[in-house]
Write a structure and sequence with these properties.
The structure holds 2 protein chains of 2 kinds. Chain A is mainly alpha-helical. Helices cover about 65% and strands about 0% of the residues of chain A. An 8-stranded mixed beta sheet of chain B has the order 6-5-4-3-2-1-7-8. Classes of the chains: A mainly alpha, B alpha/beta.
Chain lengths: ~110, ~350
């Protein structure tokens, strides 16, 4: 239980404990979560790859461990998983760079 | 083709002794870290687990193999030349298949095709048995001139081919089975397709086997099958019938891998937590009789590798009365959790989808 660091890999197994102190909301979250990851218009495998990419953007080490394994279980290989992360990284860097237009606008406004 | 590893026997690993493996598997029960498989069955009202009617005779034709895969539960390899089934044992098997009209004969190994009596046995057996499975590692087909006509031989006798291809990517497959295995497997699959295997208008059945290339459980068979079919057809023009998903068993070289990488306890915990009582009635140990290269009898291939014989006073093919098998309690151990995890695992894939 005791751990000096902020991220303890063992804590992932205790994720269910977030229902403590707020059972109704906690249960609703887990029901929703389970439903989201079921096979639907997207396959379980596609959802795992999306989750892996998002996990890198939100920089959640628990999610990275969990969805790396989920991707492997669903037959994804290293190339596909790395490509998924690049998609996330491209959107993330693009989201920064697009503000360059705002910078350009401001430069044009402020300079001769 | 380069070997992925060496056999435990050649490495003189303590795990080459089945008694040592059983000790490793059973130690956590003594320390109460894990519940015993028998206790788990008892909790779900499934104990004792008993043999049902015999439907599959699985013959391990020997531990000799042209590959040394990192996960092999048989510890097969090119050095195991002295452990191949004799013609006497095979003759007795034919007699039992004929007398008891056993509907399915499942040939495994090692590489069963390396047994010098393989072709003779198949010729004899195909005359008396409607369904013969050959668990072909694919690369044997390209391993030498003497094997290159195997696809035609398989087709002539209508064998059902079940072949391991743990991944549709070269990296994943070669990491488990050895450098060059993927390319040789693709070549062999093309040769099988060319004689009609896996083709939509053909009766020649070609199934592939997915087993995880590491310490994790496989996902749903149907999802993986869709991806496999799409990838293999688009990239290599290969067709097959079904994808069989098998869980890696903590036995022999996969157990060694788990211990060497410090993942043994975590993997066992994963298997135990994923125990699914709905898989128990369909376990393959209930309807299969597994025969070792030297004729001893086991409830399944995994028990064979741990040398846990059937609970019978004469557990040998030369002495057995097949009718006395039904109702016998099955020999259980901790690796059995591998067959009951998630959707379950058997030589035919998932048990409870």
């Amino acid at each position: 239980m005791a751990n000096d660091g902020y991220f303890n890999p063992e804590d992932l197994k205790r994720f269910g404990e977030i229902t403590r102190y707020q059972q109704t909301l906690g249960r609703k979250f887990f029901d929703y979560y389970r439903e989201v990851f079921k096979e639907g218009a997207l396959t379980v495998r596609e959802k795992a790859l999306i989750a892996l990419a998002v996990a890198h953007v939100v920089q959640c080490p628990y999610c990275i461990d969990a969805y790396t394994e989920e991707c492997l279980k669903n037959g994804a290989d290293e190339e596909e998983m790395m490509e998924a992360i690049h998609v996330a990284a491209a959107i993330r860097s693009g989201a920064s760079l697009v503000f360059g237009v705002q910078m350009i606008n401001h430069i044009e406004k402020k300079t001769m | 083709m380069r070997q992925a590893t060496q056999t435990l026997r050649r490495l003189r690993s303590p795990l080459a002794q089945t008694r040592y493996q059983l000790k490793v598997l059973h130690q956590p029960i003594e320390t109460h870290a894990f519940p015993s498989f028998a206790d788990t069955l008892r909790q779900h009202g499934k104990y004792p687990l008993k043999r049902a009617k015999l439907e599959i005779l699985q013959l391990n034709l020997g531990k000799l193999c042209n590959q040394t895969c990192r996960h092999c539960h048989v510890d097969a390899g090119p050095d195991r030349k002295d452990e191949v089934t004799s013609k006497e044992i095979l003759q007795r098997a034919l007699e039992l298949i004929r007398i008891h009209q056993i509907p399915t004969v499942d040939l495994t190994g090692g590489a069963p095709e390396m047994n010098p009596h393989f072709r003779w046995f198949v010729e004899q057996c195909s005359a008396i048995c409607p369904h013969i499975i050959d668990r072909c590692n694919l690369t044997i087909i390209t391993a030498g001139k003497q094997y290159r006509d195997l696809p035609q031989f398989f087709a002539r006798h209508g064998l059902h081919i079940v072949s391991s291809l743990p991944h549709y990517s070269k990296n994943r497959t070669d990491a488990q089975r050895g450098q060059g295995v993927f390319e040789a497997s693709i070549e062999a699959l093309r040769m099988l397709n060319d004689v009609g295997y896996g083709q939509p208008d053909s009766n020649l059945q070609l199934d592939l086997v997915f087993n995880p290339t590491g310490a994790f459980l496989p996902s749903q068979q149907c999802t993986l099958e869709r991806v496999y079919k799409d990838k293999l057809l688009r990239k290599y023009g290969i067709r097959f019938n079904r994808l069989i998903v098998i869980t890696n068993m903590p036995i022999n070289r996969f157990l060694d891998y788990l211990l060497q990488t410090g993942q043994y306890e975590q993997y066992m915990q994963t298997l135990i937590e994923a125990f699914n009582p709905a898989t128990v009635d369909g376990l393959m140990c209930r309807n299969t009789l597994s025969v070792s290269w030297d004729g001893y009898l086991y409830d399944c291939d995994f028990n064979q590798m741990l040398d846990l014989k059937i609970n019978h006073p004469s557990p040998h093919l030369l002495d057995i009365d097949i009718d006395s098998l039904e109702g016998l309690p099955i020999a259980l151990h901790q690796a059995c959790y591998g067959c009951t995890a998630g959707a379950g695992s058997s030589c035919s894939g998932e048990i409870a989808s």
